């Protein structure tokens, strides 16, 4: 067993999010959250497989009208097959890391490659490049420190990669996902034992309560 | 139909694949046929893997290519793009036949995920983050007990989906085949978002109960 694998995850992704991943209807940043969480969580991996199976049954039995293939379709496909090379699977050599491989793909390396930027009160962030419908960023909250007090317009999911944090919803350790919907105000506080690194995705910009953070918000894209 | 016969008459078989597929579903009661059909699809993928069997591929093609095309059209592709993508999905099936694991997914589920991935690549033009692979031992043939268990689960799931109340089933279908997020379904149907979410939750809960 990979020692970076969390076996005691208590806060999981919702069925709605897993189904969205399976159907291919989520924004990219949310897909990144799902891929990262499922890399660590066997329960959600199984649930995602079940959602895929629903898609499979629908594909198999669903009556979709007006979908005849072109008459030369099969021959064209055979020609395509003959021209293209067989697909081989290169076994991934996986070193234990704080960052599951989907995240490493977005960073272009491991922890040391993250380009952190300070956003005040010791908190640092790194924005990950995704499509604009939603945003993804890594956050580093110093041990014992608080994130700025903030509320949400849309849906925000925050998953712990290292350390832990506490907020009104409970205690969140590696692999746990904190899901915050609209109108919730919360102040996550990092556990004192270790700096806390999180992946946070959101389909709307956060808003901060204080004036200063709100001004800062326009500069730092938090 | 023997696995070796494809070398003799690949063209004729490919022309006749529609008829073969029709015969297939005309045999016996529907349920029995569904189970046999799923078994047959697995052996077809193995024939492609082992013998580059075009006849087996043609039968899979007749059943799945039009469905994949329909899925892509419902997702917003125009006819010619959907046609091309469906061909690419089926070509991927051929090339990845050696990676198919019937203890982890049915053939239909496997094809669905290939089509879904293609949709994200081509239509949504997004990068597509995927979970880490589980680290399995050295590559082995999957355990037949696991293959059988998965087939039984698929059968139960299929029945459960057909017995869902119409309102719940329609929402699930729209979520997968209308390419709509839950809030988009809310806009389209005029139902409140909360109702959509709770109906889908109920549907998944029912499916989960049936699977126990």
Account of the protein in words:
The complex is a heterodimer of chains A (222) and B (212). Chain A has 222 residues and is an alpha+beta fold. Helix content of chain A is 32%, strand content 21%. In chain A, strand 1 (117-118) and strand 2 (124-128) form a beta hairpin. In chain A, helix 1 crosses helix 3 (42-61) and helix 2 crosses helix 3. By secondary structure, chain B is mainly α. In chain B, helix 2 (17-26) packs across helix 4, helix 5 (79-95) crosses helix 6 (107-124) and helix 8 (166-177) packs across helix 10. The two termini of chain B are 37 Å apart. Classes of the chains: A alpha+beta (222), B mainly alpha (212). The interface between A and B is large, with 63 and 75 residues.
Mean pLDDT of chain B: 81
Order of helices and strands of chain A: HHHHHEEEEEEEEEEEH
Across the major sheet of chain A, the strand order is 1-2-3-10-5-8
Helix content of chain B: over 70%
Order of helices and strands of chain B: HHHHHHHHHH
How many β strands of chain B by DSSP?
Answer: 0
Shape designation of chain A: elongated
What is the fourth-level CATH superfamily of the largest domain in chain B?
A: RNA polymerase sigma factor, region 2, helix turn helix motif
Q: From the 3D coordinates, which CATH architecture of chain A would you assign?
A: Sandwich
User: What share of the residues of chain A does DSSP label as strand, in percent?
Assistant: 15-25%
Low-confidence residue ranges of chain B: 1-29
The profile of the biggest β sheet of chain B is: none
**Text of the CATH class of chain A:** Mainly Beta
| CATH topology label of chain A | Jelly Rolls
Summed up, the helix count of chain A is: 6
């Amino acid at each position: 067993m990979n020692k970076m694998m969390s076996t005691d995850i208590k806060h999981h992704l919702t069925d709605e999010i897993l189904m969205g991943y399976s159907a291919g209807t989520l924004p990219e940043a949310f897909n990144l959250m799902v891929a990262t969480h499922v890399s660590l969580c066997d329960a959600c991996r199984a649930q995602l497989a079940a959602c895929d199976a629903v898609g499979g049954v629908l594909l198999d039995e669903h009556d979709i009208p007006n979908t005849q293939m072109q008459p030369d379709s099969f021959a064209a496909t055979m020609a395509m097959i003959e021209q293209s090379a067989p697909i081989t699977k290169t076994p991934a050599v996986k070193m234990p890391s704080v960052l599951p491989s989907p995240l490493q793909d977005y960073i272009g390396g491991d922890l040391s490659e993250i380009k952190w930027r300070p956003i005040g009160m010791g908190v640092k962030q790194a924005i990950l490049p995704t499509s604009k419908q939603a945003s993804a960023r890594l956050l580093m909250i110093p041990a014992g420190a608080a994130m700025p007090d903030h509320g949400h317009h849309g849906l925000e999911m925050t998953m712990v990669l290292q350390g832990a944090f506490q907020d009104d919803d409970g205690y969140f350790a590696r692999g746990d996902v904190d899901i915050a919907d609209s109108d919730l105000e919360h102040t996550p506080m990092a556990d004192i034992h270790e700096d806390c690194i999180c992946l946070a995705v959101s389909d709307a910009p956060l808003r901060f309560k204080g004036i200063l953070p709100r001004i800062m918000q326009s500069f730092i894209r938090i | 139909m023997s696995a070796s016969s494809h070398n003799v008459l690949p063209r004729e078989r490919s022309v006749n694949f529609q008829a073969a597929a029709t015969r297939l579903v005309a045999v016996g009661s529907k349920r029995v046929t569904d189970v046999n059909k799923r078994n047959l699809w697995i052996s077809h993928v193995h024939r492609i893997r082992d013998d580059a069997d075009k006849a087996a591929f043609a039968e899979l093609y007749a059943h799945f290519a039009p469905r994949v095309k329909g899925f892509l059209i419902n997702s917003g592709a125009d006819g010619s793009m959907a046609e091309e993508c469906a061909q690419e999905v089926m070509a991927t099936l051929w090339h990845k036949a050696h990676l198919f694991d019937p203890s982890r997914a049915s053939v239909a589920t496997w094809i669905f995920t290939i089509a879904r991935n293609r949709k994200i690549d081509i239509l949504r033009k997004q990068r597509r983050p995927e979970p880490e692979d589980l680290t399995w031992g050295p590559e082995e043939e999957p355990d037949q007990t696991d293959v059988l268990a998965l087939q039984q689960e698929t059968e139960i799931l299929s029945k459960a989906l057909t017995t869902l109340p119409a309102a719940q089933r329609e929402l699930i279908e729209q979520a997968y085949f209308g390419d709509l997020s839950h809030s988009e379904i809310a806009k389209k149907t005029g139902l409140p978002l909360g109702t959509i979410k709770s109906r889908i939750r109920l549907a998944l809960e029912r499916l989960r109960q049936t699977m126990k």
